[in-house]
Amino acid sequence: MVATLRLSAASIPVIYCTDLFHPHVDPDDHFDLATLFALPELEVKAILLDQGDRQLKRPGAIPIRQMLTLTGRQVPFAIGLGQKLTSPADDGRAQPAEFQAAADLLLKTLREASEPVTILAAGSARDLCAAWNREPALMKQKVGRLYLNIGSADSDRSEYNVDLDPQAYIGLFRSGLPLYLCFCLPTGQESSNALYSTWWQFRQSDALAPAPLGLQNYFIYALQRCAPEELDPTKALQADLRPWQRLVWEMDRNMWCTASLLHAAHREIHKVGGVWTASRSPSADEDAAPFSFVPARIAVDETGKTTWEPNATDPNARLFKIRSAESYRPAMRDCLRELFIAFPIPPLTHTDVFVSGKDGYHTYRIPAIETAPDGSLIAFAEARKYNAGDPGLGNQDIDLVYKRSTNNGATWSAMTILEDPGELWSAANPATLVDRTNGRVWVIYLRAQPGRSTDTARPGTDDLQTLARWSDDNGGSWSQPLDLTATARDLKDPVWRASVPGPGGAIQTRTGRLLAPMWKTPFGTFAIYSDDHGHTWQRGQFVPGTQGGDECQVVELADGRILMDIRQETGSNRWLAESTDGGATWGQPRPGLAITPVACAIKRFTLQSASGDRNRLLWTGPSRLERKRLRILTSYDEGKTFTRERLVSDDYAAYSDLTMLQDQTVGVLWERGVDRGYQFITFTRLNRAWLGEPLDGAENR
To answer: Looking at the DSSP assignment, which residues form a beta bridge with residue 77?
Structure first.
């Protein structure tokens, strides 16, 4: 299952060419990119970044990656030719190889297209002209419309985009492609030709103030020319940038491409209740539209000078024209505001990482997930070969496997076996953490001999071992196992059969301690920890009481205490225990959430002392009575209460684990089923906007 942005049934394939830069040359390009992605019927197939030489110094890739992160979409992009074309027939192949990618991507996209493609272009348009000169027949066949935002309606006046590459401008007008010309000049009303210019202006707060937080942050990041080395672009999307709003909200913004984007999306612009709207439905009064494209005869001479005749009987293009100067500016403002308010930030995306019955395994269970120092995700699972049973039960063989994702969980690598201990042996119950000091990723897990389970293992033996491995390259490769059995279990205890990690939920505290939650049989919970980056480990004391408990996770509270969330053995409530000494000892437990017995996840989301707006903990688990309906709850009071319940899925649901992505979104790896349990291990990504704020306004400031 992969759920991303749902496009309109009548999707319009689009290639977008832009002179977008960061730091910006003109922020209107950032507004245009957001408008493009705010129109879900425009299925963006490729983005071409104009002027490749300048892109190396002011990479437009930064705002594009931000936009892809915001919307959950995947769109290829490439930088284009770095120098002006030498003639209208120049195909650009003489320029350096590093600048060929945009033209190549354009042609590849057209070859793969099953229907005509709309091209929207601003900037020099040299990659379009070069591509035309390489494969004119392909472009003639596959380009349905070409919107050029370029040129001046005053033939005696030069225009910035034309001056960027006059030969490309001339070449495209000679191509015979279906042109929709959008003049950028004149601005204002100083010329009699002003009705043929797309220019308009608005106050930025009109469109940005009601926009979603992530989109606001995208614009603040651009308008403040933030340096990526000082503020990570993806993290900025979820940051608290409100102090900067006043610096940008009340600025006026010049715009040019809004009308062409709306027209390419086949939006009908009309008034509803005194407000202009860009509707997907036909307007009852088409004459009310503030602009149109009229047939025109357009000629361009050898210098790039343009002459044109609107409403020509022998047209070779369509020409933008304002129908109502009084209505055009407020219509564009209202439509842009409407699009930004409804900006399609997906609340949830779901991707199946492991599918039972695939890759030679009957069932995948017991997920654990970690965000590596480089931002990649590592998803672990038990790969149960012959049946769905637990380690040591019946004819069972379990390998510990993992996959990696380098794009925030959108796609995943092929599966890698971390440990196959042998026929009918088991490697199980992974719990992960990252040592922030040295970038080392740890996974702590259980190894079981054939036929030995937590019930049948013999005390004082290595029937069940507690092991650990580490990776110094973000999960690309792993160490040999480190045997922690003698630390995690008292081998002299005549009844202590097993010590089992988590699953999931190991952490590094802010003091640097590595801390892994553990449970034992007979039932009880505790932690093991290391204060020297894993060179040596110690075992803490048990959580006191007679409640038992097994599978557990830990989280560090704002004041440095450790909170352990524990699966109950009997009754309806889980258990919560606190430690004031980093997990060495524990206080008396108190009742936790009411839920069916299952392994659940708890994780720090935001921390006020680390630049968060407030303290938040997250918790995931299924419904109270059955292994279905995965929920996520938020605590604003450091684990005293969990509120703001949100439903992740109605499907079958059991074990889960949590991780924080580097862009400040949340990742949930969980067991899912459609018509029965344990059919998939699924990765779900969500953001703070979806989680919401406390309903009663409660805060922990």
So the answer is: 47
